[in-house]
């Protein structure tokens, strides 16, 4: 079967946040009306019926297809549904898998992707991701994936946190209301210059992965780094040769570490390039669903995903150990 050629395909995972997904998709349709694009929206069985609303809203648009998935399959498997649909139905040059809370404003977005591909021949490209609420550039998130010892240490740390689950829940709940509901909006409104200084000071600290958030290297292209999961741009070799975009063993979190590990071990080139730019509105769907329990949910999913990562890491280690032994 001859597939229709497609230059740029999008996969956008939807769960609950109807207005956010519509804003994301409509922005693409309006801004890039003359580009050869097709958009897949995968509804992860939203209980509020918003997937059906999206399907009705875009039913007459030939550039958009809404897939109503039969269950909430999480980040990796949900995105894989869209990845597989585009792969099976199109001969596609580039596939952009991105969150529904991403807005692309760069007029030269597609031109830059093609230009960078000509220069670097990448398999996976990560853009400069700017989080406007906290004035932070989010890519890359690390310079190499976790090793075995780092993974074990993080598992221990999260288990300690979860042992104090009830205490931490109420502690974070009180802090959330004190800081984010009352103090933060007031400071931002009344004293915007001070607010920006506070945010920038916090950005100089290290995040949970021990990676410095503000990094001069973010201004230059970098290969084989860990990319932020809000937006991945896959080229033809990756699309044609991979069975899926993301390892299907996780529900949420650590996908960035897993795909980096797999790409490095399997010979795919990962590239971060600051000339491709997007804006990230950050965590709309999870905030809407989990509310004040988001932190506990986050730690539990991190723990599960770290165990998946550990198994994948050990599989690669055993594979290469076996190969070295057999060649002696």
In short:
The protein has 11 helices and 10 strands. Strands 1, 2, 3, 4, 5, 6, 7, 8, 9 and 10 form a 10-stranded mixed β-sheet that branches.
How would you describe the oligomerization state of the chains in this entry? Answer: single chain
Shape call: globular
Succession of helices and strands: EHEHEHEEHEEHHHEEHHEHH
Report the major sheet.
10 strands, mixed
Between the first and last Cα atoms, what is the distance in angstroms?
Answer: 46 Å
Query: Which regions have little confidence, pLDDT < 50, spanning 5+ residues?
Result: 205-214, 284-292
Query: Got a strand count?
Result: 10
What is the C-alpha radius of gyration, as a whole number of Å? 20 Å
Helical element count?
A: 11
Beta-strand content estimate: 15-25%
Going by helix content, strand content and strand pairing, the class is alpha/beta
Share of helix among residues?
Answer: 40-55%
Provide the residue-averaged pLDDT.
85
Plain-language structure description:
- With 328 residues, this protein is an alpha/beta fold.
- It contains eleven helices and ten strands.
- Strands 1, 2, 3, 4, 5, 6, 7, 8, 9 and 10 form a ten-stranded mixed beta sheet that branches.
- It is globular.
Write the layout of secondary structure elements.
Blueprint: E1 4-14, H1 18-31, E2 37-43, H2 50-57, E3 64-68, H3 74-89, E4 90-98, E5 102-103, H4 109-120, E6 124-131, E7 136-137, H5 148-163, H6 165-190, H7 192-203, E8 222-223, E9 231-235, H8 236-241, H9 255-266, E10 270-280, H10 284-290, H11 294-326
Parallel strand pairs: 1-2, 1-4, 2-3, 6-10
Antiparallel strand pairs: 4-9, 5-10, 6-7, 6-9, 8-10
Helix pairs in contact: 5-11, 6-7, 9-11
């Amino acid at each position: 079967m001859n597939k229709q050629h497609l230059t740029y395909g999008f996969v956008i995972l939807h769960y609950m946040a109807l207005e956010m997904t519509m804003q994301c998709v409509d922005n693409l349709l309006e801004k890039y009306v003359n580009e050869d694009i097709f958009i897949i929206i995968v509804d992860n069985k939203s209980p509020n019926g918003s997937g059906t609303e999206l399907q009705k809203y875009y039913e007459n648009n030939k550039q958009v297809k809404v897939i109503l998935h039969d269950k909430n399959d999480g980040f990796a498997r949900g995105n894989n549904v869209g990845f597989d649909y585009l792969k099976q139905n199109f001969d596609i040059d580039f596939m952009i898998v991105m969150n529904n809370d991403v807005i692309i404003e760069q007029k030269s977005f597609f031109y830059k992707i093609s230009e960078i591909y000509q220069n670097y021949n990448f398999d996976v490209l990560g853009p400069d991701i700017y989080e406007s609420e906290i004035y932070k550039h989010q890519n890359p998130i690390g310079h190499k994936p976790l090793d075995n010892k780092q993974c074990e240490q993080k598992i221990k740390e999260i288990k300690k946190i979860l042992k104090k689950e009830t205490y931490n829940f109420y502690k974070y709940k009180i802090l959330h209301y004190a800081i984010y509901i009352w103090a933060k909006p007031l400071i931002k409104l009344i004293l915007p210059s001070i607010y920006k200084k506070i945010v920038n000071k916090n950005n100089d600290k290290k995040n949970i992965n021990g990676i410095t958030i503000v990094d001069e290297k973010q201004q230059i292209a970098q290969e084989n780094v860990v990319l932020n999961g809000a937006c991945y741009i896959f080229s033809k070799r990756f699309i044609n040769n991979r069975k899926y975009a993301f390892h299907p063993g996780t529900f949420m979190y650590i996908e960035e570490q897993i795909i980096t590990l797999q790409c490095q071990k399997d010979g795919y080139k990962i590239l971060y390039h600051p000339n491709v730019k997007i804006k990230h509105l950050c965590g709309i769907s999870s905030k809407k669903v989990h509310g004040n329990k988001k932190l506990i949910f986050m730690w539990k999913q991190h723990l599960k995903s770290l165990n998946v990562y550990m198994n994948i890491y050990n599989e690669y280690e055993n594979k290469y150990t076996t190969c070295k032994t057999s060649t002696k």
